[in-house]
Amino acid sequence: GIQARAPGEGTRAYAIGTPVVPVADQSWECPASAPLTLSGPLNQEMGGAPYTICKQGTGTLTLSGGGSFAGDVVSSNGTIRLSGTHSGSGQISLMSNSAVVVLDNADVAKSVSARCNGSFPSTIQTVTNSTNWIRGGLATVQDGATPQPNIVLGAKSSLTVEGDFLKEGTYWTVKGSGELCVTNCETVKMGCLTLADSVTVRLQQTCFTTKAANYITVNSGTTLRTEVENALTQSPVQLSGLWDLCGKDQTMGRLSWSGNTNRAVTTSMEIRSTQPAKLTIIHNDKSGSGSNRGWSIYAGKVTGQVSLLKRGDQTLYLGSALAATGTLEVA
């Protein structure tokens, strides 16, 4: 393994510029006072097994040289910073509540898995003005009622996720001011996704769900773009921000399940499309209580060329800001 140590009470940064090829399982220790950078490639041994690198310590391990290493990288805490092209398979596992992956113009073939087992969730971050890919997908491991792991997108940055994403039981909160794009994913059974701050999430493939507890929350100031038809088939949407249908028809479950029939129109809520698009709401859910039991309440705006089609045997309550040029149908 590798142990980075600072002299005395001071700090010292270390760098390895030559290629690194693990030929056994590794333990690399990086305390906060001694960050380690591999500026050369981290490569896979030709014909060798895909060994595991365990990153220990609260410091930062920077892998800026890319490489073909096909084993797993496990971080107990601290930060792993990735840039360049990492073509090897395997997984990056964030094992504790303080583990962070920072992406800086990185193209990563590995998947990233975050375990939530403490007061603070693990995090994936992108730096400002960067373009990044995670091609192996994202996953979470929930240990009880713990915080959702975060994806924090730097300003004017983008993260494209391929492979498995939003498996049933998977929870992510997307924060910051960048853009998350979901495309070419193998698993389309949706978990729970929360949009916060001023992020934009672009769904470029269909995400299914079989449970009403699996939903997407679009908070005020955020934008959800559904860029393929039926991107959220029968998924409940809790909408407080902007949903851009992008000219693509959508069929989904409950539109919202909060508020009451006297709720004032909320201007931060908006469903829009500059091209003709139909939103079909299939509402058979009888959850809730009292006079609102089974009601789906939307107090936002509907603008552009959006048509609404209501299906199901429960009640959909709409606010008064229906400025769309499309039709309103009940079936």
Walkthrough of the structure:
With 331 residues, the chain is mostly beta strands. The protein has strands at residues 2-3, 14-16, 26-29, 36-38, 53-56, 60-63, 73-75, 79-86, 91-94, 100-108, 111-116, 123-126, 131-134, 138-142, 150-153, 158-161, 171-176, 179-182, 192-195, 200-203, 216-218, 223-226, 237-239, 242-244, 250-252, 270-282, 295-298, 301-311, 315-318, 328-330. The strands form three sheets. The chain has a 21-stranded parallel sheet that branches. Strands 1-3-5-7-9-11-14 form a seven-stranded parallel sheet, with no helix packed on it. Strands 27-29 form a two-stranded parallel ribbon. It is elongated and about 70 Å long.
**Shape designation:** elongated
Low-confidence stretches: none
* SS-derived structural category: mainly beta
Count helical runs: 0
Round the mean pLDDT to the nearest integer and report it.
85
Query: Main β-sheet, in a few words?
Result: 21 strands, parallel
Rounded to the nearest angstrom, the distance between the terminal CA atoms is 66 Å
The total of beta strands comes to: 30
Beta-strand percent range? 35-45%
List the helices and strands in order. EEEEEEEEEEEEEEEEEEEEEEEEEEEEEE
User: Over all CA atoms, what is the radius of gyration?
Assistant: 23 Å
Helix content: under 10%
